[in-house]
Amino acid sequence: MGVKTENKMAYEPVNKLIIQMSAPPLISMFFQYSYNLVDSMFVAGINEQALAAVSLAFPITTLMNALSVWIGVGVNVLIAGYLGQKNQQKANSAAALGVVISVVVGVLINFLSLFIINPYYSAFTQNKEIFEYGIAYMSVCVFMQIPNMVHIVIQKILQATGNMIAPMWFQIAGVVFNFVFDPLLIFGIGPFPKMGVVGAAVATVLGYVVSTIIALIQLFLTKQKVKPVFKNCLEPQMIKLIFSYGLPSFVMNALGAFTVNFANMFLVRYSDTAVAFFGAYFKVQQLIFMTVNGLIQGCLPIMRFNYRAKEYGRLKQANKSGTIIATVMMIVGMLLVLIFPKEILFLFSASEEMCAFGVPAMRIMSLGFVFSGFSAMIATYEQATDSIMPGVVVQLLRQGVLLVPVIWLLNSAVQMTGIWLAFPITEFVTFLVAVVFAKIKNH
After folding, report:
1. How high does pLDDT run on average in the chain?
2. Gap between the Cα atoms of 333 and 441, Å rounded
């Protein structure tokens, strides 16, 4: 058999391969992160308190998604590496192990989330209406975790083999279901009951269930380049590698939840409207960032495969092209937010009060977008080449270690405007650190 029958990551032109591998997960990530955005758009039609409640839920659902991506990316990197080494047996075992871990961890996180939602909302709001909306929403929404984790792991398993189309379609199916049933269940259209914020949560959970059913059919009932083999799949070393390889992606996603919570600690002192605004803005920002993350997910298995196959020229070409594309995408996202902030806020039924400080805030925060694509690709390159810590450091700086003190200092100096300024300043400094990492790696 010729080489071309084995894996296209070994022979396709790199730029063409990036487009083939990145377009479907890019679309998938866009839809993945539109769940909460769509919920917020429709819930805003109830009132601003309902929007604030769903905005406060965003860090919890983001953390749940981050845990799913952690396992999924770890499995993805592991399988891509085994396929690069032409070790089919190990790849099959890794796929099986990923499914097992996704179910076990999904169940644990589901029940843990039920216990934390009450103290969580108590800590972030004294408004009884926001508290009641939030508890009603999250008491249902936590049940998304098991199907969410399973379908994301299957998505990453298929992507590791170069199959990017199937994951895109089962992602789209779930989001379309959510988009259609959100207004029907929230407002009680036609034969459907009027459920308010609970309806948004029910539509979200059922959307994930739809995606998971299709994903299971794809993995187990259609012909794929890996087939889960559960016999003797629970290898401790393999489990360790999954959690290790997926850690930078977890940090990248989980720190978004931390960022929102930390910013809300300051914003709640100004008004509930400020909290509602930041929740709405951050969903838009995450939609842009995670769409770029879809590009990164397409580049990661290419780089990992060629690194393991010792094709270093193709590895560096994938990194260079991916960085250029990611930077262009972030510039486009920045321009959209700079030019159309009011139109974006109107999607969330924004009041005049929200627009008054929200429009300049969005313009300030969007200035940091231009630097983040470059930083993210450097972290991905480090991840693909077995250098875990530099990627983790970049993400920690962006959304934690550096951002937290900058928000605190600037909020003390210039009040709420300082919170907005902290984001582009942090992105720029992180970009400089990422450049240093890149130069060290190249040397």
Report:
1. 87
2. 29
